[in-house]
Fold this sequence. Notes:
Blueprint: H1 2-19, E1 29-31, E2 48-50, E3 53-55, E4 59-61, H2 69-85, E5 89-90, H3 95-99, H4 105-112, E6 119-124, H5 129-139, E7 143-148, H6 150-155, H7 166-176, E8 181-185, H8 192-200, E9 205-207, H9 216-222, H10 239-245, E10 253-257, H11 263-271, E11 276-279, H12 281-289, H13 292-313, E12 326-328, H14 330-339, H15 351-358
Parallel strand pairs: 4-11, 5-6, 6-7, 7-8, 8-9, 9-10, 10-11
Antiparallel strand pairs: 1-12, 2-3
Bound molecules: flavin mononucleotide.
Organism: Nocardia neocaledoniensis
EC number: 5.3.3.2
Cofactor: FMN; NADPH; Mg(2+)
Amino acid sequence: MIADRKDDHVRHAVDQRRADSGGNDFDCVTFVHHALAGIDSGEVSLAVDVAGKQWDTPLYVNAMTGGSAKTGEINRKLAVAARETGIPIAAGSMSAFFRDPAVADTYRVLRRENPHGFVMANVNATASLEQVLRAIELLEADALQIHLNAVQEVVMPEGDRSFGSWPRQIEHLVAHVPIPVIVKEVGFGLSRQTVAWLRDAGVSVADVGGRGGTNFARIENSRRPAGDFAFLESWGQSTPTCLLDCAGLDGIDIAASGGIRSPLDIARALALGASATGVAGAFLDTVVRADTDALVAQIRTWLDQLRQILTVLGARTPADLAGCDLLITGEVASFCALRGIDAAALAHRSPWWRESRDRGGVIGE
Ligand SMILES: Cc1cc2nc3c(=O)[nH]c(=O)nc-3n(C[C@H](O)[C@H](O)[C@H](O)COP(=O)(O)O)c2cc1C
């Protein structure tokens, strides 16, 4: 049952991605170009600190597959690509393994193909401590992802309808799991209030998992004979709005996923305060449509292009992007106005802006 559902998810995710217009809220986030801000490419390091560990890149393969023969093979390809490019990778939900240990290998392949990489286990918020420890052991996991997906469950024909135990169970797992815990949404976003709650519960990383990419309301609605939940397809906050909502929250790392389409979106997310960015749908599309080599080439190209974006912006590290001037427009600006976020302040936060102000005004005045 879970195996069939996983295969359905992959099929719908890939089909819907191809039919999608391609626009999302990242289009409302623009860097102000300062033509003399550039540095030498060799000065740029893409390394970031996430949950107390150093990652060589601010990019990871987010949770997707495992639990069926087909998705085990996808995991194998994703794991090889992660190994070849040195980027962290997450397993898809390990519920199928808890129901049927015979599918263990469709997940374990992530570690077998990538023995020295950073690998994350993935469970839902009802998993027991005993199950979680088994999942961690199977993958020799470096971190645990717990996914929050209430909207997906509601639209899923066979989905769960009970979410009241989630907060207590997250607290319980965080208190007993021996590795960092990441809590993620699956495409509907985490609000500032949710992230503050997660921080207070001891969660290391909140992956905002916002709207704008893979759409699980649409995917699950396609699996309903009557397709009667179409009205939920635009539910939730987009990834850029989530990041703006969380600005200034200390004590928890913020990761961004949901609708990352290019190296420019990675740079935008980092500039909006993310420590790292996760990609699911875009990488799935590549391994399904082409193959592992194509995904390796895509990730290498993206990392090289990201380095060039940082070079032009004068950012020596991904963290430096949080000091670049950004223009926030359209839907994202409306969100900021309604949530009391000073979006205009982001347009003049860089040393370039301060220097021009200190010299008595903008150039030409
Ligand atoms: C086919 C597919 C299966 C997924 N399965 C899971 C899952 O099991 N657990 C989870 O936390 N997220 C799952 N996700 C959600 C992704 O991790 C990610 O949060 C979401 O797709 C948004 O990122 P994207 O726009 O880059 O795809 C899945 C995504 C896809 C495309």
